[in-house]
Amino acid sequence: MINILIADDYVLIREGLKKVIMRDPDMQVIAEATNGAEVLRLLQKHEVDVVVLDITMPVRDGIDVLKDISKYYPNISVLILTMHSEKKYAVRALMAGAAGYMTKESAARELINAIRKVYEGGKYVSPELAEHLVETLRAGGKQVQQHSLLSDKEFQIMCKLATGDSVKSIAASLHITTSTVHTYKNRVYKKMGLSTIPELTKYCLNNNLLD
C-alpha cells in the first residue's frame, strides 16, 4: 500500500485529489496539509511514502518545504502538483529534490501513474517538460543563466513584481516585511542587470515565466 500525504491550501482540490487517488486499491491518503509548515509536522507523525505537494501555499511555500523533505526525509518521494506552468518552476523543483512535476491540468490517470512511478524510485515529467529540459540544457544562453542566478525567494518575488503585485501585497502574501521585499527587489535588479518593473515584466514574458 502506498501511503500518501496531500498538501494544498484549497479544500476542494484536496477532496478531488483524494477521490482520484482512493480509486486505486494500492493507494491511500493518510494525511492532508493546508500549509507548508503543517506538511513537516505531519511527516513526524505518519509513515508517508509519497507527498503530493503544491508550490504556492501559506506559511511556507512548497519549494522551501521540498528542500526540508529532501534533507530530513530522503526516503520520501515528492511529486509537485501545481497550477504553475512547467517552464516557470519545474527546473527549480527538480533541482530542489522533487521526484516529479505535473500541473493540475493533467488527467486523473496521469496522476496515478506519476505517484506510482515516483514511489518506485523513478522520476516523472511530462513529454513537454522533458523537451523543455533538453532545450534548456542546449541553450545555456544569457537569459537562462540570468534568472537561474536568483534564489528561490528572489525568483518568486521577481515573478510577483512582474505581474504587477505591489510591495505591500507581496509582503502580506509571503508573511514578510515590506523592507524585506525591497531588499529582495534590489537583489533581483542587481543580479538580472535590470532597473525597472517593465524590464522585469518583459524579461519574464520573453522567457515564459508568467502564468
Automatic annotation (TrEMBL):
The keyword DNA-binding applies. The keyword DNA-binding applies. InterPro entries: CheY-like_superfamily, NreC/VraR/RcsB-like_REC, Sig_transdc_resp-reg_C-effctor, Sig_transdc_resp-reg_receiver, Tscrpt_reg_LuxR_C, WalR-like. GO terms for biological process: phosphorelay signal transduction system; regulation of DNA-templated transcription. Residues 143-208 form the HTH luxR-type domain. One of its GO terms (molecular function) is DNA binding. It holds the Pfam family GerE. The modification 4-aspartylphosphate is found at residue 54. Residues 3-119 form the Response regulatory domain. Keywords: DNA-binding, Phosphoprotein, Transcription, Transcription regulation. Transmembrane segments: none annotated. PANTHER family: NITRATE_NITRITE RESPONSE REGULATOR PROTEIN NARP, TWO-COMPONENT RESPONSE REGULATOR. This is LuxR family transcriptional regulator.
